[in-house]
Specification:
The chain has no helices and five strands. It is an all-beta fold. The chain is globular, with a radius of gyration of 11 Å. It binds zinc ion. It comes from Neobacillus piezotolerans.
């Protein structure tokens, strides 16, 4: 398991194939090619990427 790149919480729930949700800071996480991609769910339901906020090193995970 990995920890949230945003808040370092491990309180992460699975919501789909390679898709996770952080219950601590309420962002969506998806895993692809060894990197964690982060998305914020906007009030209108759209997703905006938060990847710019994190260094690539912070978004790596090992399975
Ligand atoms: Zn989090």
């Amino acid at each position: 398991m990995f920890s949230c790149p945003n808040c370092q919480s491990k309180d992460i729930g699975k919501i789909g194939i390679n898709q996770y949700y952080c219950w601590n800071c309420f962002i969506e996480l998806s895993l692809a090619k060894g990197l964690i991609h982060t998305h914020q769910v906007e009030e209108d339901g759209t997703l905006s990427s938060l990847d710019d906020l994190f260094d690539e090193n912070e978004r790596r995970y090992s399975s």
